[in-house]
Amino acid sequence: MDTIKIPRTSQKRVVIIGGGFAGLALADKLCGDHFQVVLVDRHNYHQFQPLLYQVASAGLEPSSISFPFRKNFSKKRNFYFRMAAVTRIVSDQNYIETPIGTLSYDYLVIAAGTTTNFFGNENIRKAALPMKSVEEALTLRNTLLYNLERALDCTDADQKQALLNIVIVGGGATGVEIAGALSEMKRYIIPKDYPDLADHEVNIYLIEGSSRLLNVMSEEASAHVYKFLTEMEVNIITEIHVTDYVDGKVIMSDGQTIATNTLIWVSGVTAERFGGIADDCLARAGRLVVNEFNQLKGHSNLFAIGDICMQTEPDFPNGYPQVAPVAIQQGELLAKNLMQVEKGGALTPFKYKDKGSLATVGRNKAVADIKKIKLQGFVAWAVWLLVHLRSILGVKNKLMVLINWIWNYVMYDQSLRFIFRSRPKGD
Ligand SMILES: Cc1cc2nc3c(=O)[nH]c(=O)nc-3n(C[C@H](O)[C@H](O)[C@H](O)COP(=O)(O)OP(=O)(O)OC[C@H]3O[C@@H](n4cnc5c(N)ncnc54)[C@H](O)[C@@H]3O)c2cc1C
């Protein structure tokens, strides 16, 4: 059933859909003599999502947080990459369908992560700026900068304010991080780049439906982040839901509205979907139900790892948090388990080793919950820097990010404020 031209060999073929944290950890460990590994991803690079907000706020170049798959695996034997978006899984005949053809497998691992959840609201989907990929982060950067350019000469006071109002929906880690980064931009960059704009004209709103920001972290962390962001002049609104976006205005559940041309939507995710998956394999937000070995319900050669899967245990009855460490640990364990399957050995069940949670809102301002230890301020910020720098793929990328951070820290500036738009082919 193969129309994609990858030779069949005596090795068993493992097809991995998605080269995010989970897929990459698995492919890294699996490559070698045991299996033929085929990675299929809709992008030709791995993206480091935790720093997307710094690309969106013109603090980092996109290439610093992206790494090409072909380079990453160039020295690995029995590895193949195909750039394609998988559309369907035909599990009774062991093959996948993509726009570039079909490909058979012995083992299939779904590691396709999640996409933004607009909760079925088409108005919001069309207007909002999500932040799940490098392309989306660049669109956000372009929009922010374009709106500032337009605001300068706007003669209608209401339209001008809409260009200068930034509304962020979702007070999780991504929401507070982008709010902090934009607040620093408002304080340090806008007065220099746009001296004819008064800085008080730029308003940043952060709207969260639950009663506190960072509601998956400790109450101490939430309280510190609330204090940091309030001091940074971010307008925080909690226990309010955004219900619609009509005529350029965000509509809230209490009837209030905010006019804005910049609606940043980081309020939830839903699993990537594929044809051919039975309904009884789907849990909340489309996550794929797996057992303790990450096997999809009712299948022995079909696995799901990372954000896309729903794996429960007594401490996590609603599934593990959708964070990078879970994805990496599941990928690494599955590599070992697949080798065990081939040897006829016993499989090891997954158990998440939670090392803690971190979030930053700007220079010297971060929070960290590391088991029972709660850190905030400079120490938490230093931990955040080290953890993220360590996790970025590639020595050059690590260096580029470090240099950018040092430059930003010392100079309070970064000259990446370009509006780059790609020209559609044939225009
Ligand atoms: C803005 C942001 C900030 C975050 N910050 C943190 C943080 O600070 N700390 C933390 O631990 N976690 C953070 N996360 C969460 C973390 O990034 C995820 O938990 C992690 O990426 C999950 O890894 P994954 O491999 O399951 O999926 P992903 O990393 O999302 O990778 C999925 C891959 O699948 C590919 N793909 C999707 N659909 C298809 C298809 N149909 N066909 C082919 N390929 C496909 C995608 O291109 C992608 O490469 C953040 C996430 C975001 C969006």
TrEMBL record:
Q: Tell me, what is one Gene Ontology molecular-function annotation carried by this entry? A: NADH dehydrogenase (quinone) (non-electrogenic) activity
**The species this protein was found in:** Bacteroides graminisolvens DSM 19988 = JCM 15093
What family does this chain come from, according to its entry? Belongs to the NADH dehydrogenase family.
Pfam families found in the cross-reference section: NDH2_C, Pyr_redox_2
Q: Does the keyword Oxidoreductase apply?
A: yes
Specify the enzyme's EC class, one word. Answer: oxidoreductase
Q: Where is the External alternative NADH-ubiquinone oxidoreductase-like C-terminal domain?
A: 355-409
Spell out the protein name for this chain: NADH:ubiquinone reductase (non-electrogenic)
